[in-house]
Amino acid sequence: xxxxxxxxxxxxxxxxxxxxxxxxxxxxxxxxxxxxxxxxxxxxxxxxxxxxxxxxxxxxxxxxxxxxxxxxxxxxxxxxxxxxxxxxxxxxxxxxxxxxxxxxx
Length: 105
What we know:
Number of helices: 1
Mean pLDDT: 86
Shape: globular
Helix content: under 10%
Structural class: mainly beta
Largest sheet: 5 strands, mixed, barrel
Order of helices and strands: EEEHEE
Radius of gyration: 14 Å
Distance between the termini: 32 Å
Low-confidence stretches: 5-12
CATH architecture: Beta Barrel
Strand content: 35-45%
């Protein structure tokens, strides 16, 4: 189980990782592909904003379409039973759009 982490009184001790790439959601599959690669990662959305914002951009009939995101998070080894070697844990959604930059298709 993942949860949001709020540290209002503490300074971050490290610079957060910024992920830029293509996100796709459909029942049973949440994936992220960094720009310029052909590697997909499983996604864990620790604050539930990514799936919500995706649903606001993409109609239910089009679930599975990719959108461009910029997000803070961490890459971890996937849990047993996940079909991907690594998981991107999104801790903060910075940007989500259907407009995919030319260098990220």
